[in-house]
Amino acid sequence: MPAQHPAIALMPHSSIRLSPPIGETIVTFISYRTLIERVQLARTVRRAFIMVVAASICASPGTAFAQAHGAGDRSVTVDGPDAGDEPVAINEDALETAAVTPDGVSQKPAASHTIDPVPLEPSAGKPAVASPAPARDPDPVVAALLSKLAETAELRDAMDKDDVNAIATFYASVTDHAVWTTKDGFTQAANDALAEIAKADDWGLRVTDFELPALVGRSFTDAALAESELKVAIALLKYARFARGGRFDPSSISRLFDQTPEIAEPLSVLRSLSQSRDIAADLRGYHPKHPQFERLRQALLDLRRAETEAAAIAGETAKIDGKAAEERKPGEKAENKDPTSPHSTAGQARAREARAKPAATALQLIVNMERWRWIQRDLGDFYVWDDVPAQMTRVIDNGKVLLDEKIVVGKPSTPTPIFSSPMLYVIFQPSWGVPPGMKANELAPQLRNTGGGWFSTKPLASSVLKSHDLRVTRNGNPVDPDAIDWSSADISNYHFTQPPGSTNVLGVVKFRFPNKHNVYMHDTSERHLFAKRDRTFSHGCMRVENPIRFAEALLKHDKGWDADRVADAKRRGENIELTTPIPVHVAYFTVAVDDDGKIEVHRDIYGLDNRLASRLEGRNVRVGGAAVATSKRKTSPRRSYANKRKKRPAAEKKKPFNPFASLVD
Questions:
Q1: Which of 96, 240, 381, 472 has its CA 20 to 30 A from that of 370?
Q2: Distance (Å, rounded) from C-alpha 579 to C-alpha 558?
Q3: How far is residue 595 from each of residues 14, 52, 359, 396, 588, measured CA to CA in Å?
Q4: Would the pTM count as exceeding 0.90?
Q5: Tens-place pLDDT, residues 412-428
């Protein structure tokens, strides 16, 4: 029995069954096997690497394995701790590549990544026989790269976990050579990519977040090339992820952001960019394609140009002032009639314009650009856009605004969440069910203060509910509220509803887009609230100023209904299920740019700009204005008396009495 090769001792928990023995090539296989043992990556990554090495061994004409099996059954069985409980069969004829979409985004790769074999032309008069491929030595740069990735724990810890797996899989199973470097240095594609990443600041990112390698000199070692190759791959994946909003989870800024950025799958990014004909353009393609994002970006570039010009003017003025002071005689006044001088009328006007306070700071623009990265890339051809800071809703049809209406949004203490969901129903003459939070926090205290009886000064529970026009049920059955001890009862077991009517808090129509927040859009009997500048009065839902006109726009698009048909549905109290769900996007943007390039700034009603800006800057910063105050400011008696004498608007005088207004959602 032949002596065991010393390298076998390095693998006490693994075994390789190859028939017949492959001689000296087993040493190469074992060395790669040992390397994989040291890489603490996913099992699929290790298998992919073994597949490539095994495939190259099978194809080598100098091995006994290739001589014995030729073009027949080309499979290798590998077992051990990495292969799991069952042996893994590697078959070259079954290898295939993963699909890559035009923008470099594909579905998650399969557990194994394979390569298509090259088809062979059959010889005339003879059956097609696959000739063995020539032996090929592993690329030393790729080997050094994988070794560095495996052996440097601090490097892996600093990287995104998915990026680590993608890079290992890419260089183990997708390519067998370096992509971004050659013996002469960087490829042209790598230079173009690094130049584009160096412009990250122009896109609201920070170039300092990316480690851009540099190859200096005329000759390079394999280790130097491997390090640069790896750094390019890391920078590409990080840039693609950051451009798509993957710097951090939006919910880590606030739980109000119920959004999931559409991050490009890392392995597909490497596949796509490695085949790109214009890598700089493809990198830019990972940024949002929404027009508003580009408008904010152009505003950012304009602001930075203005800041540069202002600094130049200030420097020029100081230089001229210093020179003039040296030339003037004692007691002589400064005089300059040169129109190009900073001291001339035209020069002073230029200086004032350059020093003018911008409508929004650079950090405010960047904060809002970042939020656009969290929005769905495809908003839909026809959709509803609820802008919470602007307190407006819009119906958009192929980029055209069909309807633009005021809305009432959540108070700072009960804010409106930020999310997207498809609208499914338009409900006329709806009843209203008191939400769980309002039952516990607002209705329960009122019911606990009831009692009744001959000598009690407390109201009856039925009187409290009647004042709110509420009905109470349990398990679908009506109950007598006066027969319940509300001081000990679990109010969550009871359901309170307000039937349709003139005082119903939802008004005449409700728009449902199911979501975990139990938030929707609806009419309201509190019409006077739309005359206010800050319309933050709800418990999270959004009240629409002209709900019938809003319903007409939606139902005309979905069902082709005219205004008369909508009026008939209102009169009948119809519950309408939309034929095609309409996307509803509840968004939070404090800065927008209109069609003329004018910057619009809205109040940061929930104070979310400061949180995001601080996270982006890595330190506590404050941008924009403060959120709307949650408590009323105290006024002097004189001011209070003066306010009482002011005439109230007619709409406010005639508003219907609603004792349940404090509970409106």
A1: 381
A2: 6
A3: 66, 54, 16, 15, 19
A4: no
A5: 999 999 999 999 999 99
